[in-house]
Design brief:
13 helices
């Protein structure tokens, strides 16, 4: 088959689709293959990782394919820095990285989202520059379309993940979004009025909307099987607190650290509890739109 054919990518995906059977830890998205393995003991984890990679290597060879060892990397997420952890495939050492790109998002070994936010700030700054230059040659309607195409799309991509960064990390995004929204009109209207007028959610509300949609999908069984037991129902944790279970569906775990309070297991049930009950029974197509109206009204009143 000639390189660059239309059906080439599809046939390749079909060809490698059963690689997930080689290892239970394999995560396959299109032609992007990753292994996600966790463990409490780093020695046992190291042994498990190398064993699973050996199984992957056997599958690749059996299917007459080859691994590009130089483009293969691994990342170790833990609280201890000085750990000897070596990974190899067919006697080829795999390099350890502190930051890796996965489906367009930069993950770091400390999960502080510093790499991702720095990259995103650079991209959004360029988008702001484009909007500023365009505002002298076009109308508000076109500028608004450009905003959603070149700024909003980058801002909302994977915000469910990096949006849980601390407030100091998110501060540049708040400033950039304010700057982008102000380019929609030449007059010196207050930023809060511009958000309301053009029905644009601020970054913190965009994150809240993303979490709400995630919780809605979980509540209605619309997520992958991996998330089946991600949130515990209060009835299963506190058997005798029926009144609490009727008011708050999902258990809100106690988090002693600020990092724990930024986790989805803590933020998700907290946001879900504050969503109006009539919205929770909405259809999948209308839930996001209705909750956006609620958030916009809160922006105006606040």
């Amino acid at each position: 088959m000639p390189q660059g054919s239309v059906v080439g990518p599809l046939l390749f995906i079909i060809y490698i689709n059963d690689i997930v059977k080689a290892s239970n830890y394999t995560v396959l998205y299109a032609d992007d293959i990753n292994l996600h393995i966790s463990g409490e003991n780093h020695k046992i984890l190291e042994k498990t990782v190398n064993h699973e990679l050996k199984k992957i290597d056997h599958w690749v060879r059996a299917n007459k394919l080859c691994i590009n060892y130089s483009n293969s990397n691994f990342m170790l997420m833990n609280n201890h820095k000085n750990i000897n952890f070596s990974v190899s495939i067919n006697h080829h050492p795999i390099s350890k990285q502190s930051s890796l790109k996965y489906l367009g998002v930069l993950l770091d070994d400390e999960l502080n989202w510093k790499s991702q936010t720095e990259k995103l700030v650079t991209q959004l700054s360029k988008s702001c520059g484009m909007l500023f230059k365009l505002k002298h040659y076009t109308n508000i309607s076109v500028l608004k379309n450009v905003y959603f195409a070149l700024f909003h799309s980058y801002l909302t991509y994977s915000i469910l993940n990096w949006g849980r960064a601390n407030k100091t990390t998110l501060l540049p995004f708040i400033r950039l979004q304010n700057k982008a929204v102000r380019t929609l009109e030449c007059n010196k209207t207050k930023t809060t009025i511009l958000y309301s007028k053009h029905k644009i959610l601020e970054i913190l509300d965009l994150f809240q909307l993303s979490v709400a949609k995630f919780m809605y999908s979980f509540h209605n069984g619309g997520l992958l099987n991996h998330f089946d037991n991600y949130f515990a129902e209060i009835a299963t944790v506190h058997k005798y607190q029926r009144r609490l279970a009727s008011l708050q569906k999902y258990y809100l775990p106690r988090m002693k650290t600020s990092l724990g309070q930024l986790s989805l297991k803590y933020i998700g049930p907290k946001i879900w509890y504050n969503i109006p009950e009539n919205l929770k029974s909405s259809s999948p197509y209308s839930f996001g739109k209705k909750y956006k109206i609620v958030l916009l009204s809160c922006q105006t009143s606040c």
